[in-house]
Design goal:
The protein has 117 residues and is an alpha+beta fold. The protein is built from four helices and four strands. Helices cover 31% and strands 13% of the residues. It is globular and about 40 Å long. InterPro entries: Arsenate_reductase-like, Thioredoxin-like_sf.
Length: 117
């Protein structure tokens, strides 16, 4: 069964670029979702779906902590508020994220992206 490999990718991020290169070296040609571009931005519902596919109950599983404080996220911020903030400020989404079917993984380390192959 052919399942499309979707990579949530930010070309300005070296880890994301290395993750894409690793997939390509392993024969995977992912569909690239440049979620930082307004035209390809992730909705709150898509972000919730990604958390579910990761087996996580919280968006904190892929929250980029070093940018979270910039948009007012702290330990007391609700999951719902974090999802809304992620949709509005994609730079606070940790990357890269690989998605295949009903599974998703955060590529930190990038080798984790191969778990879906």
């Amino acid at each position: 069964m052919d399942m499309t490999y979707i990579l949530l990718h930010h070309s300005g991020c070296s880890t994301s670029r290395k993750g894409l290169a690793l997939l390509e070296e392993n024969g995977v040609e992912p569909e690239i979702r440049k979620y930082m571009n307004a035209s390809e931005a992730l909705s709150v519902d898509e972000l919730k779906d990604i958390a579910k596919k990761m087996g996580a109950s919280s968006p904190r599983a892929f929250l980029r902590d070093k940018n979270a404080a910039d948009v007012g996220i702290d330990d007391a911020t609700s999951d719902e508020a974090i999802f809304v903030a992620m949709a509005a400020n994609p730079k606070i989404i940790q990357r890269p994220i690989g998605i295949v079917g009903k599974k998703a993984v955060l590529g930190r380390p990038i080798e984790d992206l191969l778990k879906l192959v």
